[in-house]
Structures are given as structure tokens and as C-alpha cells.
Amino acid sequence: MEEKWYFVEDGERKGPVAKKDILKLIESGSLSDESYVWTKGFDDWKKISDCEEFEAGAGVDITSDETDTEVINVNDHSEINELKVNRDKTLLTLGALDPNKKVVYLKTGLDRGGKATEYGPYNLEMVKKLYKSKRINGKTLVFFPSLDVWRVLASFTDFEEIFEELPPVIEDNDKRVWERKPFTARLFFTNNDQFFEGICRDISLGGMKVLIDNLPVELGEEISLNVHPEEEGHQFVAKAKIVRILDDDNGFSLQFVDLSKEAKSAISSYLATH
Known about the structure:
The protein is an alpha+beta fold. The protein has five helices and 15 strands. The chain is 16% helix and 28% strand.
């Protein structure tokens, strides 16, 4: 089956077209080396100058049919069918997560030019509902076990297959700013025989919230934490008391207990830079 290609022309995403049609547009000057194109298998939109497929024509006959394109609305969103994670070096796909487990964290705000806020964990059905209702979009950041950093939803190579639409164009500069290590905490119980890992938010010298699914804790229980903010140099260990269980058992609020001088310094320096 011939590859389907999409391209951006005059601010509009168009396609699908055959590879030979892209070459025609390049030859006519309608597209340049700086124009963006996308096809199945790309982890994001690429400039033509970065595509091996269009080096010196790549051996494609461009003398046949005229280009037939369809204008695609940049703001269209359709529902999620499934999620999959299968990382192979730089290859990112969606779809093999257990649909019944709450393991997906979302970071919204940056996708709409606002302040970043973390939510979750969600199972896949919850994520589908959020996408369908347009509360998240292709630029929303996602994190789940096996990812090393937050990832833009549109950066997964099977985005078109899953969401039945083209991924939005995301500039490399934006991706570098957005895709950072999550602010995580490793949580130990009193006997230290087991640990859980969650996403932290709303941190202060008094305490913070931890987003995590079904952590078996009770109000008033004390736990130990090893906290890892996004940037190096702000890590700390602490003991904390559970003071509130969040709705739907999606996490809890905790109050730090006897913070050390080092922990206070790490938290203060983190707050001063965020």
C-alpha cells in the first residue's frame, strides 16, 4: 500500500497525498525545505530538509496524476481508541497499557499557553473521556511507567491510527521545554519492605500532594519519602503524615514531619525557581 503523506501549506494541514505529489509541490516551489510533512511512522512533523525520503527525489516518478488534497482543520479533535507503550530507542507508540489500571498522569496548561498542572492517575477509559470532551489535546503532556520524561501526546508514532486525525505541529523548542522529568516521590512504608512511586504537586515547606492510585494508607499514618523534582539539585528525603485522602483514591495530601535542614533548603530552592 502506498504511503499517505500530509503537509502544511499556508498554515493549513493538507492531505493525504502520495509521495510523488509532495515531490511535485517541492518542484513547483509550493513547498520548500522548511515546509512540514508527516506520514505514518514519524514521531512528529518533520521539515522536508530533515526527511531522507525527499533527498534528490528519492527515485519517485512525479510525472503522473495531479495532486488531490483535502484541507484538514487544525483544531479538530476525535476520541481516543486505545493507548500503547512500546519504546524502542526513539520509537514511541501507544496501546499496550492495562486498560483497567490507573497509571496515566496528565499535565495540562502548557497545551493551552497556561500554567502547568498535573492530574491523575487515570485508566485509559478516563483518558478517552477527557480527550473526547476536549479537556486534553494532542499537546497535552503524558507520563506513565516505562517513560523517562513527560511526553507530548502527539509525539507517539501511532497517533493518527489511535486518534484518527493528524498530530498537531509542535516546534522542537516547545518540546524541549515541555518534555522534562516528572516530579516524583518514592514512598516507603514503616517496614520499608515495599515502595510506591507517585507524581508530586503543590509542594511547600509544610507538605504537598502526591498523585498515586490506591496507595494503602490511612489518615494519620506516617510514611518515608524520597523526592525527585524535575531538575537536579532539589532532591530530598523526609517523613510525612497523611492528612487527607483525595477523591476517588487518586492520591493524598501529606504534612512533612521534622524536616531536616537539607530538606528545607532543597524545597526552598525549588520553590524559588518555579
